[in-house]
Every structure is written in C-alpha cells, then in structure tokens.
C-alpha cells in the first residue's frame, strides 16, 4: 500500500466487451477535405461520440485540450488561429507548391522550421507541466498525507504539426470512434482518395494512416467507392438494371467531380471523368452567407461585409465564421424538408442577434449559378464521352450538397436526362442515413470493400488477388465490347417494323471481356407448330430525335400569344449490323396458360439464353428451355 | 452459375411465313476496345470474380464455376459445424406462414401457441427447455428492435418526419410473448393442452360406430391412434396401448380395465367466458363464474361420456374379445368332456360354482323342510288349544245346565 500509493482519477480500464461475432473488424473511411464519415463492416454508417455521422475534418487546440471534428469547427469563431482545417488537400504537397493566399480563417500554413520544404501548422498550446516525481522512498520519513502533490501550472508553448501528423491525429480519432462503436480493435480500413490525387499524395496519405496505426487495405478512388455501394444488392430501384450507364455527381466543398461509369453486373469502369476545382459547395455557402448578411443589415442597420470580410475588421470576420457554422443547419433543413429553413446566430455583430429564414425557391435562386455551372460541366462530360444524355440510366449524388433537390431538378432539366432516369430523389432514398444518402455512400462503399478484402485468406492465390486490388494493377486493364449483342424474335408487330421482331439485348456495349450473361424470359408459341425461332445479331444503338409541336392546350388558358415551341423527343433506336446466327427449332415444354387473364389459352415456354463472349471475341450462345427435357440449341461464332 | 436475369417479356409467336436466314460463316462481332483502353474500378465481388477468372482460371467460366462451387461447399461445411455446435434440442426452424405472422395479439386465446413458437411438431411433448429455446429463437428474429429499420416505404413523408408508421410491427412479437407466457406456466399449459386445437381437429376425425361398419375399417389401425391421442390426458402413465391381434387375455382385460377407469386431467377452463373485469358488479361476476363452472362440468361430463362411448365401441368391435370368448368356451367344453380322473383335487371354477350351487340348494331344501315342520307344529299347537277351549266351553255349558 505504501509503496504504490493510489493515484487520483485512476480506474482500471474497463475490459472490452466480447467481440460480436458477425461484424468483420474492418471499417471504411470516407476522408474528404471538409467532412469525413466512417462505416463498419456491414456498411452501416457509424456516428462518433458526439453522435455525428458527418465528422468535420478539423482539429483545434485550446489550452491543454485538443478538439477533433465538429467541436473543433466551432472553435473557428474564437480560436481560429489554433484551428486546423482543410488539411487533406495539402497532404503530400511541398510547401512551395501551396498557394499562400488560402487558409486565412484557420491556423496558418508555414514552412516547417526543421524539415526542408514541408508545410506545417503552428498552434499555441498549453503544455502540461511534468507531473511531480513520485517520492523515491518514504521509508523513514513520516508520510504526511496520501494526497498527491498538485501539478504545477501548464506552460504555454508553440507546437509545430506537419500536415501528415495532423492527418494521423484525425484518422486515429476516426478509428477510435469506430472501435468504441464496434467494441473490438480495427484491423484494417479502406480509405477514399480523390481521383485527382497524385501518387505522391497517395503515398503521403498511406504514410499518415500507417503512422496512425491503421492497416490500409486499399486506397479507393471516390468513384470506385461510390460504385462499390451502387453495385450491391441493397442498391435497388424500379428501373435499375444490372447493366447501366451511371453518372456520379460529387459536389464537394471545394471541387466538383463528375464521373460517367459503365456498370455491367457489378463490374464497372470509367467512361469519362472530370474535376472542376473552382466550383463547389463553398460557393453556395458564400452566396447564402451574403444573403443572410444583407438581410441582417437590412433588419438592424448595422453594416456587415462578408465573403470576403475585410481584413481589418475582426468583427466582420467573426460574423462570417459564425454564419458559416450556422448555415450548415440551414442547408440540411433545406435538403430534408420542403418548407423554409431558418438560420439563427446569437450576437452576430455588435451584440445583435440574427434570425432569418430562406425557403427552397429562394435558396435555389441563390445557388442557381453554381447549379448551372455543374449542369454545363455535365453536358461537357457527356459530350467528351460521346454519350447522349438520353443514354444515362442513373444519376448518383455524392456529398451533402448532393442532397439538395434543387440541384437534381436543375440537372435533369438542363442536361436533358431521360424521363424516368434513376436518381436517389426519384427513389426517395436521399435523407435518413439510408443506403441512398449522398453523405454516406462513399463510406459505405469503402466498408463493403474492406469486408471483401478482409474475407480473402492469406494463401498465395488469394494474396495475388489482394495485390490486384491496388491501383494500376494490370489485371484491371480490360478489353471491352463496342457494340450490343442480343437476340431478335421475328414477328410483325406494329412497334417492331424497323427491326422485324422483338429485340432483346443481352450483352450491352462497353462490357468488359470475358463476359457471361444469362437471361430468362417467356416466348409465346403457336399451338399448331410450337416453333421457336430467333436470330442473333450485333447491333448499334443510337438516338433518334424528333421535333414535335406539342398539341395546343384545348382551352387557351392565357391570353399571351406565346408561340408553341417545338419539343425534342428522343427515342432509342437499334440498327442491325451483323447477323451472327439463327436458330429454328421446336419447343418441347410448351404450357398452355390457364385462368382468365388475357393470355389464357396461349402457349408459352420459358427460354433461357446464355451468351459467353470470350477474351478473344468468340461468342458462344446457348438457348435452352427451362425445365427437364427441354430443347437445347447451341451456336458458336469464332474469334476474330 | 451466373446470375440469371429474368426479363418481364413474352415474345410473340413466330409467324408461319418466317424463314430462318442463312448466316454468313464469316460474321464476327466487331473488334472490342483493346486491352488498356478501359480500366476496371477495383471494387466489389464482381471484380474479385473477374480477377479469379483472368488470373487463375484462364478466362474459363466453367473452371471458375467449379472453384466457386467448391468454395461455397467449404463455407457451408464450416457453417454446418457452427450449427452442430449449438444443440437446440430438436427445436429446429419451422416455416412461418403469412397467416401466422399476421396473427392478432388481441385474439391470443384463439392462437395456436405451439405454432407461434415453432413447436407444432412437438406440441404437448415439448419440454420446458425446448420451449425456452424456441422462444429465444423467435425473439431473436422478431423483436421490435430488429424491425425498426426495415420500413419499406421510405418515400413516405411520415417516414421522413421520423414517425414510426409500422406501429403494428410488434404484433407477432406480442403473440410470441403470450405463447411463452402460456406454455411456461404449467397450469395454463395444462388448460391449453386440454383444448389443443390440433387435438380438437383430430378428435373430429374419430369414426363413429356406423361409419366403422359402413367403411369396414381396420380395428387396430383406426382405433390404435385414437387411444394414443387420448392417452395424453391420463394421470397415470404409461398408458396401455390397444395392442395387437395376438395380445393375451390379461393384456386385453388390463386395457379395458384401464380405459373404463380412465383418470383424466383434462379440464375446460380455457374455454371459460371472460369475467367482465370492467364492471364492479359482484353479482355479475358471480353469475359468470357460476355459469363457467357449470359449463366446465358439462364439458367434462361430455368428455367422459365420449371417451366411455369410445371404449364401449372398441369393446364391441374388438376381434380379440370374440377370440377370447371362443377360447373360453372351448376350454369349458374340453373340461366337460374330459373330466380327467386324476384331477379332482384341482377344482375348476365351474366345479366350484356347481358345488356352491349344490350347497345352496341343500340349504334351501333344509330351510323349506324346517318351515314345513314348524308350520305343522304350529298347527298341532293351535289344534291343541282349540281342543282345550272346546273342552272348557263344554265344561262351562255343563255347569250352567246343571
């Protein structure tokens, strides 16, 4: 007892709960420049200790304390000099490469005093005084009391942190949150990385992560992480085929990145991508802050200049910082509900409080220039990939700004997307942290990926597979089809005049080789012959544009003589290119439909068509009737 | 095997005039994008399969299929070990029909508690441990906490507002809890078992005597299960079974003896009408209770009569009884014919009876004789008295005249 005096505030560390069996000990981390999110092995988003699923990428030092996440963001108002934000984009960059004008609202980026050409942050902290030495020996000296000697006052010092160190601290806190949630140690993580990152930046991120004690399973491009989520069985929609052309719209704080993906039964590759650094959610924030600042001036007659706030007016700077924090909430409300959203700031300037509101329409008007530039970039991207806007099957939004319905409306309208295009808004899966929530898509994708890599064993074969998941591995370079293959069932229906039959596409264009597709459908037969015949074709798909003058509304509603504009109507068309084969046979398992439906009395058989396109371009077609003893026909088209 | 896409199409029939075109043998698909033109995103299980295909299986789908099937089997075997490690005492997993899942917890008295817990293959035979395991299994599956996030209609504005719409979500869970409550309480379980819905159903199927004769049913095959069915209600276990055609006389007699004195625990409290808790009227309560009691007694009596009738029927139809009677008769006749000289020491029952009869007859005779003697003695006495009277009268008359 005397030799080990009980220390104050010490308790035995609680034993960790037994690891729950089903969850793999891996996480996915979406590491953005302004916000990060984490998801566990089953791809559910994890909230940190403060209950936030969107964790601000900020670290703030205040006295002896260190704040991480949204608490640190609050420090931007009063303690901006000791608050570090936006550090991810500086990872792996040399000091000389960083433009100096940035980061005026947070801790300044300086040249590291010791390391050459390294960016670092300088923050004021209080260093805790060394704890009093334990008494070397208290034998012989009568112990006056068991209370430990109080510590001395902490001393103010400067602390220099490199960008890599800051990143390590932040990532460590994320993993810590995940460990607290899961109750077991995290053994691996997949982290997102923007497509624009150079190899040096990727290496720097990898190093920062391993410094934080994280075993990085894979660094995943944002687009790949999104694809990982959208190709899971959870991602469902009414018109969502496994083969589709997908447009990813990632509206980040400081940049917009657009990616056009070809998704083919889980395999996906990029058709075209672009990244626009000068538009982003920050621009929307600026507009909104300006709007509220003008409103404040109007209401209180106190002049307030923001975005940018004059350098000589700390009051304006502080007001801007306060508004910037407050509008987070406003934006979320706008995304979630159709009504007006409020913005309240206590003591915005000169002791005056501010409460204002903005409705969706006004907000969309404010953000309109940004929406418009995103839309024009999408148009540019589609043009560069030579993909018609009508061919885009699905739009996926990423990031908090992607939850804004105004952006979706604007894109569908201006880009001219097909009616019935799949968007998370059409499906109604945007808010609520569900699978379609733009703020969690990336983290979920990373978590799926982490669980997948974690499931691979350590045998030599599987190791080879694991290696192939790294970026730029040659196994990911593939050949891909350029035209669509399918079967044509001849008939003379009104709608099928051009082709002369019902066209069923089976292997779509832009599908990686080798490929196998199995499609099942019903074929109607005549009662007399039970003849089953079709042709195998390679076709090219196109878009036919027709200009139609819409019929005038029957009661002329308004008196204005607006000329009725022509409307472009687009149709998907198919032109037959190459006949690859033909089958003419007798069905054996035809069944007559019973009951009272309109098909009653007709004869049907269920046909399964399998296409295998080999790596050299050889095609195997197998047609079989579903069931035992059905007719089976095979076709072969030899390789090029 | 590759995933099969089922398309909601039905192609119209081929016109009779259609002629299959001749295919030029030189036709090929157009050249694919060269390798490297497209770079797959290294994500997802599909990419993993693509890697396996290109790295390990030389682009052969059949080889990959074999590998994946083997892998699945291996995993299934691993999983199977897991299952075997956890002994559920044969509770197993029963299929839950929609009907079952849509039960109304308010109607809990009418539900089949065994079916709700997935024990309908065990029923009254389920042990307390099995009930516990089954309950736990069901709770793990149907606890309302597990269902909180599985709302399908996400686009609904109520959902967006964070209001839980499926308030009826825990209906089946309530049913489970009720079933557990009933089956773990021995008294309640006894009451429920007495009117087990499956038993009632089977009871309906017991053929009547006329049916029996009309359809010429097999005695043992038909009535064996019936008695088996009823044996659950016996306080005395084990219950003797119907047996077979060659059962001994003692067995058959034992069987009928048992069933004529059947000691049943069956009772009918379960079917009681609810005492109206809402009203404070004591009279009301007493009235209902009285009615319930008489109803219970009536049902019990009915049950007893029914069982009695069943045993009577069985006795009447039992081919063994005839056989036994026949055997007895034969034995008797054999006795009569061959009165073996060396056997008098051993008196048969019949002989005993005869002797008894004889003794009785003798006693009767004796009695009758005695009666006659007594009557004669009485007559003599009376005659003597008369004579004495006569003599006295004559003497008096003689005195008067004299």
Oligomer: heterodimer
Mean pLDDT of chain B: 81
Helix content of chain A: 10-25%
Low-confidence stretches of chain B: none
Organism (chain B): Gymnopilus junonius
Region (Disordered) (chain B): 13-36, 277-302, 327-402
Domain J (chain B): 112-196
GO cellular component, one term (chain B): cytosol
Give a quick precis of the structure.
Chain B: This is DnaJ domain-containing protein. The complex is a heterodimer of chains A (640) and B (402). Chain A has 640 residues and is an alpha+beta fold.
Any chance you could write out the topology, listing elements then pairs?
The complex is a heterodimer of chains A (640) and B (402).
Chain A (H helix, E strand, L loop, with lengths): L25 E6 L3 E6 L4 E2 L8 E2 L1 E5 L2 E4 L1 H5 L8 E3 L23 E3 L7 E9 L27 E8 H20 L5 E6 L5 H13 L4 E6 H9 L12 E9 L4 E9 L2 E10 L4 H20 L13 H23 L4 E9 L2 E7 L1 H25 L9 E5 L6 H12 L7 H4 L13 H15 L4 H8 L9 E4 L3 E7 L10 E7 L7 E11 L5 E18 L18 E20 L4 E2 L10 E11 L5 E7 L6 E6 L3
Helix pairs in contact in A: 2-3, 4-10, 5-6, 5-7, 7-8
Chain B lengths: L3 E8 L21 E7 L4 H13 L4 H25 L12 H4 L11 H4 L11 H15 L1 H4 L9 H4 L10 H14 L1 H9 L2 H8 L4 H7 L3 H12 L18 H12 L21 H36 L1 H19 L11 H53 L1
Task: Describe the model.
With 640 residues, chain A is α+β, with helices and mostly antiparallel strands. Chain A has eleven helices and 28 strands. In chain A, 24% of the residues lie in helices and 32% in strands. In chain A, strands 1, 2, 3, 4, 11 and 12 form a six-stranded mixed beta sheet that branches. In chain A, strands 22, 25, 26, 27 and 28 form a five-stranded antiparallel beta sheet that branches. Chain A has a four-stranded mixed beta sheet with strand order 15-14-13-18, sandwiched between helices. The model of chain A is unreliable at 1-21 (pLDDT under 50). With 402 residues, chain B is mainly alpha-helical. Helices cover 59% and strands 4% of the residues of chain B. The chains are: A alpha+beta (640), B mainly alpha (402). Chains A and B meet through strand 12, helix 4, strand 15, helix 10 and helix 11 of A and strand 1, strand 2 and helix 1 of B.
């Amino acid at each position: 007892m005397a030799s080990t005096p009980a220390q104050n505030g010490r308790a035995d560390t609680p034993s960790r709960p037994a690891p729950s069996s089903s969850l793999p000990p891996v996480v996915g981390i979406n590491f953005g420049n302004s916000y990060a999110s984490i998801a566990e092995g089953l791809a559910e988003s994890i909230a940190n200790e403060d209950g936030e699923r969107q964790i601000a990428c900020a670290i703030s030092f205040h006295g002896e304390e260190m704040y991480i996440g949204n608490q640190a963001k609050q420090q931007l108002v009063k303690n901006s000099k000791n608050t570090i934000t936006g550090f991810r984009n500086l990872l792996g960059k040399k000091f000389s490469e960083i433009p100096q004008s940035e980061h005026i609202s947070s801790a300044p980026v300086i040249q590291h005093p010791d390391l050459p050409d390294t960016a670092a942050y300088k923050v004021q902290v209080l260093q805790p005084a060394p704890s009093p030495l334990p008494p070397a020996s208290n034998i012989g000296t009568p112990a006056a009391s068991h209370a430990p000697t109080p510590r001395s006052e902490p001393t103010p010092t400067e602390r220099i942190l490199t960008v890599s160190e800051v990143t390590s601290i932040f990532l460590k806190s994320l993993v810590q949150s995940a460990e607290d949630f899961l109750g077991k140690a995290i053994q691996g993580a997949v982290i997102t990385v923007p497509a624009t990152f150079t190899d040096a930046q990727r290496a720097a991120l990898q190093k920062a992560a391993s410094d934080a004690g994280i075993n990085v399973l894979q660094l995943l491009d944002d687009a790949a992480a999104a694809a990982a989520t959208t190709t899971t069985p959870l991602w469902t929609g009414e018109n969502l085929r496994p083969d589709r052309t997908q447009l990813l719209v990632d509206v980040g704080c400081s940049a917009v990145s657009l990616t056009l993906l070809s998704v083919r039964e889980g395999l996906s590759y990029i058709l075209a991508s672009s990244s626009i650094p000068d538009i982003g959610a920050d621009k929307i924030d600026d507009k909104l802050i300006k709007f509220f600042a003008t409103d404040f001036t109007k209401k209180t007659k106190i002049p307030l200049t923001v975005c940018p706030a004059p350098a000589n007016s700390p009051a304006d700077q502080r007001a801007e910082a306060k508004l910037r924090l407050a509008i987070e909430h406003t934006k979320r409300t706008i995304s979630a509900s159709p009504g007006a959203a409020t913005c309240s700031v206590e003591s915005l300037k000169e002791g005056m409080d501010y409460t204002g509101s903005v409705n969706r329409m006004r907000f969309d008007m404010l953000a309109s220039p940004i929406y418009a530039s995103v839309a024009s970039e999408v148009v540019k991207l589609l043009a560069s990939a030579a993909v018609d806007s009508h061919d885009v099957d699905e739009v996926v939004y990423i990031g908090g700004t992607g939850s804004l319905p105004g952006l979706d409306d604007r894109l569908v309208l201006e880009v001219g997307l097909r009616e019935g295009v799949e968007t998370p808004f059409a499906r109604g899966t945007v808010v609520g942290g569900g699978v379609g929530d733009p703020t969690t898509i990336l983290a979920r994708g990373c978590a799926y990926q982490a669980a997948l890599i974690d499931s691979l064993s350590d045998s030599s074969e599987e190791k080879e597979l694991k290696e192939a998941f790294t970026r730029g591995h040659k196994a990911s370079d593939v050949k891909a089809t350029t035209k669509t293959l399918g079967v044509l069932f001849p008939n003379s229906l009104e709608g099928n005049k051009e082709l002369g039959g019902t066209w069923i596409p089976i292997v779509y264009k832009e599908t990686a080789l080798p490929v196998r597709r199995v499609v099942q459908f019903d074929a109607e037969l005549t009662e007399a012959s039970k003849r089953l015949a079709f042709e195998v074709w390679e076709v090219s798909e196109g878009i036919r544009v027709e200009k139609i003058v819409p019929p005038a509304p029957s009661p002329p509603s308004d008196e204005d003589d607006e000329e009725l504009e022509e409307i472009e109507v687009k149709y998907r068309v198919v032109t037959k290119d190459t006949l690859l084969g033909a089958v003419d046979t007798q069905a054996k398992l035809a069944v007559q439909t019973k009951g009272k439906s309109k098909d009653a009395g007709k004869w049907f058989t269920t046909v399964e068509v399998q296409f295998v396109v080999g790596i050299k371009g050889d095609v195997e077609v197998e047609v079989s009737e579903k069931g035992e003893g059905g007719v089976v026909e095979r076709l072969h088209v030899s390789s090029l | 095997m590759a995933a099969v896409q089922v398309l909601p199409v039905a192609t119209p029939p081929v016109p009779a005039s259609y002629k299959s075109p001749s295919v030029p043998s030189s036709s090929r698909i157009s050249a694919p994008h060269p390798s490297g033109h497209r770079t797959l995103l290294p994500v997802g299980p599909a990419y993993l399969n693509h890697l396996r295909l290109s790295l390990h299986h030389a682009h052969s789908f059949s080889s990959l299929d074999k590998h994946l099937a083997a892998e699945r089997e291996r995993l299934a075997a691993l999983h199977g070990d897991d299952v075997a490690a956890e002994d559920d005492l044969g509770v197993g997993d029963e299929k839950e029909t929609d009907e079952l899942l849509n039960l109304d917890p308010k109607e809990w008295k009418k539900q089949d508690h065994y079916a709700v817990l997935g024990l309908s293959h065990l029923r009254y035979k389920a042990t307390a441990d099995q009930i516990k395991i089954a309950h736990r299994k069901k709770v793990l599956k149907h606890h309302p906490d597990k269902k909180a996030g599985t709302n399908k209609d996400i686009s609904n504005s109520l959902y967006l507002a964070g209001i839980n719409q499926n308030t009826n979500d825990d209906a089946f869970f309530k049913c489970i809890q009720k079933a557990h409550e009933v089956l773990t309480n021995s008294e309640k379980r006894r009451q429920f078992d007495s009117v087990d819905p499956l038993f009632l159903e089977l009871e309906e199927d017991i053929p009547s005597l006329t049916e029996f004769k009309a359809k010429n049913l097999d005695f043992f095959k038909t009535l064996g299960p019936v008695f088996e069915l009823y044996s659950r209600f016996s306080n005395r276990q084990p219950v003797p079974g119907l047996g077979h055609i060659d059962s001994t006389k003692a067995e058959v007699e034992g069987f009928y003896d048992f069933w004529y004195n059947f000691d049943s625990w069956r009772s009918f409290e379960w079917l009681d009408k609810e005492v109206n808790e809402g009203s404070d009227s004591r009279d009301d309560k007493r009235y209902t209770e009285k009615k319930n009691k008489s109803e219970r007694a009536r049902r019990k009596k009915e049950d007893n009569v029914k069982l009695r009738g069943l045993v009577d029927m069985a006795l009447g139809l039992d081919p063994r009884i005839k056989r036994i009677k026949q055997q007895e008769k034969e034995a008797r006749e054999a006795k009569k014919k061959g009165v073996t000289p060396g056997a008098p020491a051993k008196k048969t029952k019949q002989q005993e009876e005869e002797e008894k009869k004889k003794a009785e007859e003798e006693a009767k005779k004796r009695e009758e004789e005695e009666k006659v003697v007594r009557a004669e003695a009485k007559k003599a006495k009376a005659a003597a008295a008369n004579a004495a009277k006569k003599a006295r009268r004559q003497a008096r008359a003689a005195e008067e005249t004299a």
